Amino acid sequence: MIQDVVIDGDRVSFTIMLTTPACPLKGKMERDARNALADVKGIGQVSINWDSRVPSDQRIRQQVGTNFRNTIAISSGKGGVGKTTIAVNLAIELSRSGAMVGLLDADILGPNIPMMMGEDKMPPPRNRKMVPAEKFGVKFMSMAFLVKPDQPLVWRGPMLHTAIRQLLTDVDWGELDYLIIDLPPGTGDAQLSLAQSIPLSGAIIVTQPMQVAAADALRGLKMFEKLEVPIIGVIENMSGEFFGEGGGEELALQQGVEYLGSIPLDAQVRIGGDSGEPIVVINPASPAGQAFAEITPLVAARVSVITLSLQSKMIPIQMVG
Fold this sequence. Notes:
Layout: E1 2-8, E2 11-18, H1 26-38, E3 46-52, H2 58-63, E4 71-75, H3 83-96, E5 101-105, H4 113-117, E6 133-135, E7 138-142, H5 157-169, E8 178-182, H6 189-197, E9 202-207, H7 211-226, E10 231-239, H8 247-255, E11 259-264, H9 267-275, H10 279-282, H11 287-314
Parallel strand pairs: 2-3, 4-8, 4-9, 5-7, 5-8, 9-10, 10-11
Antiparallel strand pairs: 1-2, 6-7
Helix pairs in contact: 3-11, 5-6
């Protein structure tokens, strides 16, 4: 991880290469490096630079041919738990850390991401491909750009599959460290179509604190396990006095997966979603904004661990002798 070491008299500079710009251990790494150098005679000034190289899930390029390093599905077992809110704010926080981020609205029948991002139009096509809209440093694409606001989409499985595939491959996404994919609730055609269309680096399960929501979230978690998609972790949304708390953490503990944290119930989150001003933009210092700031590095770190683990399994073993 240590690169570009330069020694000039008693001055030393070097770069620490991270596996994600949103690394949660950045502060500890800097302290450890400075403490280690403090014991070396002759060293005076120390300058530490930072860079990152996000590991790539090689299956994505091999099977789909896109320039996505990682794909993250945001899922819930039922509607109304704030899954899209999680997807939008997580994407913006990852972008603010320095990552290249895309956001795909895979809720084909109920697309809401353009409203939450405050943008209802996408740029004109380029080189026979659709161009995603971009705001807050995030590229995003949705079926809402392609149909009238009051037009219902009464589609069966094959049409959903085709639409999801086109939003992945017929859009000029460019190079992305992370593609965040907002799925519709449940365990139906869209989830299966996505898993068949592109390898998923991992899935985040969103639930409310109540047991009825956690029970539905469990079904979604089990679906991804059946599809052999790694579970990044569980996020509990709308935590607090009104809905209670602890259901998400209990679900994660029971299933042996990471508990990423909770987002407190906050009216500003709803207001920001309706007005196209996500909470991490309009009030990052709020409890909800701070919760996203704490959860995002954990997500990035988990994705790096999962991706590096997948890479090690793909390395061919050479026989000697």
